[in-house]
Input
Amino acid sequence: MNANVVISDCGDSALTVKAVGLGPEESWRLVHALADVLDAIQLHGVQDVVPTYDTLLVEFDCARTDHDTVRGILWHEAARFASAAPRTRAPRRFVVPVVYGGDHGPDLPRVAAQLGLTESEVIDLHTGSDLTVRCLGAPAGAPMTDGPPFPAPVPRLASPRVRVEPGSVAVAGRQAVICPMPSPGGWPLLGRTPVGILDLHGDPLTAYLPGDTFRFVPITPDEWDDHAGTPLAACHG
Output
């Protein structure tokens, strides 16, 4: 068994696997490596595998398998990784153009004031490094990334918005995200990208996966139409 995981029942048709005793990066790699293995072996009865930062949810059809069977496979695979889970694929890099501030990023002034920075400094930090996609969240595979190196966590809004436009680029705490489709949201909005994040007719719905990286690049409002409707695509070379 791997002493770095705790496996628990979650209702009558799911298990959770939590990484323990490891740093954030090692925990993330372990649960995502286990998710990749389960996706690859197509275990009988398993319906969905959802990895996050340090926890994996495994949902199954309780008429086709059971907790003990799935748990046994998870223990077996976790034991193979010990404390050093590999990265199973090379990350891809996505460049994301963003119009910051104004109607597209109404919370930029608020975030700058909270951090004791100018708006330009907030943008510089948000665009200054590649940010790793750690997991896919709600709604519809929203890319949850590492946050930029701000000097302090960013508070959520006291009153969430009823509607956030697709492509909105937001931050909260030590995280960042792009909203892929219209939805409510309480994260402060720094800007918005004109490129398409979600392909409702594609399989998969998103071009990115956990482990890929985003690099945000500022553009002017006049450049919006140059990118509008273009699907997000990985860079080559």
